[in-house]
Design goal:
Keywords: Phosphoprotein. The protein is of the alpha/beta class and 151 residues long. The chain has 6 helices and 5 strands, in the order βαβαβαβαβαα.
Length: 151
């Protein structure tokens, strides 16, 4: 399954990154995956700044999978910045994290997360969860009008 737009995976843990990419493969998710390893890298990718200066920002991700516990800028601040900018405010953001903190869940939803998923420890459950994410966000979900995404 693929809709042509990339998936932005914001993940600082190399093991979780590898597991997520492997789960995408097992679920036949063919969208290109862009990986940002911290909050600054995610912001730079989305807005074409820093290390992504000159990136064609008319091509926005189909969905952002966002860890919360990130170096430099944490996931909640990344989410805040995504929702504060009209170019990115409507991109679906799925928080994919190990945090079970009630305040993290509440704050993520308050800031506009579309979904909050705790990473399962068991790989088979994780493959299933990523498959469900792919089916929903890349196949079933109707995105906001294309002009709102800037493409």
């Amino acid at each position: 399954m693929a809709d042509g737009r990339p998936i932005l995976l914001v993940e600082d843990n190399p093991d979780d990154e590898a597991l997520t990419l492997r789960a995408f493969g097992k679920n036949h998710i063919q969208n290109r995956v862009v990986v940002a390893h911290d909050g600054v890298e995610a912001i730079d990718y989305l807005f074409g700044t820093g290390g992504h200066q000159g990136r064609d920002t008319s091509q926005m991700p189909a969905v952002i999978l966002l860890d919360l516990k990130l170096p430099r800028i944490d996931g909640l601040e990344v989410l805040r910045r995504i929702r504060a900018d009209e170019r990115t405010e409507l991109i679906p953001v799925v928080v994919l994290t190990t945090s079970r903190e009630v305040q993290d869940i509440r704050e993520a939803y308050r800031l506009g997360a579309n979904s909050y998923i705790r990473k399962p420890v068991d790989f088979e459950r994780f493959i299933e969860a990523v498959g469900q994410l792919g089916v929903y966000w890349l196949s079933l979900n109707e995105a906001a009008e294309h002009g709102a995404y800037g493409y």
